Amino acid sequence: MKIIIDTDPGQDDAVAILTALASPEIEVLGITAVAGNVPLDLTQKNARIVCELAGRTDIPVFAGARQPLKRPLVTAEHVHGRTGLDGPVLPDPTMPLQDRHAADFIVETLRREAPGTVTLVPIGPLTNIAMALMKAPDIAPKIARIVLMGGAYFEVGNITPAAEFNIYVDPEAAQTVFRSGVPITVMPLDVTHKAMVTGARNDAFRALGSPVGRAVAEMTDFFERFDKEKYGSDGAPLHDPCTVAWLLKPELFTGREINVEIECDSELTRGMTVADWWRITDRQVNALFIGDLDAEGFFELLTDRLGRL
């Protein structure tokens, strides 16, 4: 599977990237950075830090949008820390940042590769993906699928009472993506909140004994403090790795083909994913919306793959 990961690392983004880089079934054509959890100067740096942690300096990393399409940037240092990768002490990257814009790389790659062979995996705000689709509408039918982390239905929101962070940051970009006609798989909070890192699961990462295993455990040690305080949970959910895990083992997940619309106008519900889970409307299906996962199988997969790095 050829993929492009679009990301705003983020500790859970880092785990998703590491899992993809450790999986022989996946060829990562490139990583594109977007402003989100932290500003772009940090997300592009963090993407390169993660590649070097994996020993994969061959992966090209591109910087993309510094801000949403129409709105001021909202970030999440309160969750991910000042750097976005707070927790482990990791060296600054030495591998270069590519000189093309992320959206241009996405367009050029989709035009070059055979139609239906490249999957986009956005795990941050959808600004870069929307920019590519708006710049080059001809790429839409060439995309095999977009597998994204974002949104919620039963879990509602984590940055506002109505909205999940990635969609809230750039709802206009999300609206463009969901209306693109590209097949979409959505990993909303409804499923990612079930991918909970317990103490035993984090101990399994640490017990790998490798720099990757230790770094992931230390990331989760930092990351979980916010969720424990907010939700009273036993640990932190690993949101973004659900996308890569679905690519590797879709049988671990269950969901429904439904219509999803993005609220852009209301200040009260800006960024809400209006998911027709119960199929109440006659709006056209545009997404596979995931609702549940086999958590044990998910963490077995992650631990196995991270242990290969």
Quick description:
The chain has 309 residues and is an alpha/beta fold.
Q: Mean pLDDT, rounded to whole units?
A: 95
**Uncertain regions spanning at least 5 consecutive residues:** none
Q: In sequence order, what are the helices and strands, one letter per element?
A: EHEHEHHEHEHHEHEHHEHEEEEH
Quaternary structure of the protein: single chain
Radius of gyration: 18 Å
Based on secondary structure, the structural category is: alpha/beta
How many E strands? 12
End-to-end CA span:
19 Å
Q: Reading side by side through the largest sheet, how are the strands ordered?
A: 3-2-1-4-5-6-12-9
Structure description:
α1 packs parallel to α2 (40-53) and α4 (102-112) packs across α5. By secondary structure, the chain is of the alpha/beta class. The longest helix has 21 residues, at 211-231. It has helices spanning 11-21, 40-53, 77-80, 102-112, 127-135, 165-169, 171-178, 189-192, 199-206, 211-231, 241-248, 295-306; strands at 2-7, 27-33, 61-63, 118-122, 143-149, 184-187, 196-197, 236-237, 253-258, 260-262, 273-275, 287-293. It is globular. Helix content is 37%, strand content 18%.
Descriptors for this entry?
309 residues; alpha/beta; eight-stranded mixed sheet; two-stranded antiparallel ribbon; 12 helices; 12 strands; 37% helix; globular
How do the strands and helices of this protein lay out in sequence?
Layout: E1 2-7, H1 11-21, E2 27-33, H2 40-53, E3 61-63, H3 77-80, H4 102-112, E4 118-122, H5 127-135, E5 143-149, H6 165-169, H7 171-178, E6 184-187, H8 189-192, E7 196-197, H9 199-206, H10 211-231, E8 236-237, H11 241-248, E9 253-258, E10 260-262, E11 273-275, E12 287-293, H12 295-306
Parallel strand pairs: 1-2, 1-4, 2-3, 4-5, 5-6, 6-12
Antiparallel strand pairs: 7-8, 9-12, 10-11
Helix pairs in contact: 1-2, 1-10, 1-11, 4-5, 5-7, 9-10
